[in-house]
Amino acid sequence: MAIDFDATLTADSSLTVDSGLADAAGGSRVLDLLGKVTTPYREAERFLAYLTAVLSQVDAAAKAIERIPDFFDIDTAQGEQLTFIGKRLGFPRCHCVCDATPVYGIACDDPVPGPPIAGLCDEAVFRGCGGSSSYCLYDDEAYRAHLVARRYQMLGLYDIESLGASLRAVWGATAWVPLARRGQVVIAPGRVLTDAEQRRFSITLRALPIAPTMEIAVHYGTAPIAGIGAGWGGACGSDLLCPTVVDPYSCGDPPSKLFYGIEGSDTDPVVAGLGDDDAVFAACP
């Protein structure tokens, strides 16, 4: 910073600073400090100009230091600063996933998370031949939402309220927890997921505050779920709760389903009684 030794001050009891020197001071803190100069030195123009220059540099450094927390706050950080926070939380931007490679098939009207479907003329592989690949959360806002969920997980907040807050951070206000029972928790996005959300679906599950021993099941339906009480859809115009077990770290297909029904001599799929908590209704995936 250049020092103007020709700057002039008007000396009085309040040490009034001319506009040029006030601009050089650059902040009220510098002016406050200049106001503490004792009377014998208020006529020392070169000394005051030098002091203004030095204090302005110190003030600029202080302002930069004060802004540092904003750059490393999970709510405001961007780019490399957000990446740094993710590393400290043990959740980097890039993850190994199993379903990032498109597979040959016919897309359904209501897609669910899984391998992207491609036609026979597209670049894809047959299911089971894709192996693993990498998916990176380059979008800051998507990455930030996952870090918010990961923060709950790191703090060991495995209660339903914390899980619900994490789901809403990632998927929005429609996401919720329809069911939590011994050894299993059922989560629901409450809407159709975008293509990007489907591709990073397993990554999202890894960030949620769900205890390591708990089985994760997902209800993919978007209609209200049949039930009585706040958040449920009643008995008419609603869907049955149809949870699908998902392992966010496995590349295999989910385990075989049990369906409620009456077992016959040649039953396929496997049928279970109404008292079996691991079964679903036949219309469920």
Instruction: Please describe the biggest sheet, giving its number of strands, its sense, and whether it closes into a barrel.
Output: 4 strands, mixed
Oligomer: single chain
| Poorly predicted residue ranges | 1-25, 265-269, 281-285
Estimated helix fraction: 25-40%
In what range is the share of β-strand residues?
15-25%
What is the global morphology?
elongated
The total of beta strands comes to 13
How large is the radius of gyration? 31 Å
Structural class: alpha/beta
Order of helices and strands: EEHHHHEEEEHHEEHHEEEEE
**How many domain units?**
2
- Mean pLDDT across every amino acid position: 76
Widest sheet: strand ordering: 7-8-9-10
Number of helix segments? 8
The termini sit apart by 69 Å
Properties at a glance:
alpha/beta, elongated, single chain, four-stranded mixed sheet, 285 residues, 2 domains, 8 helices
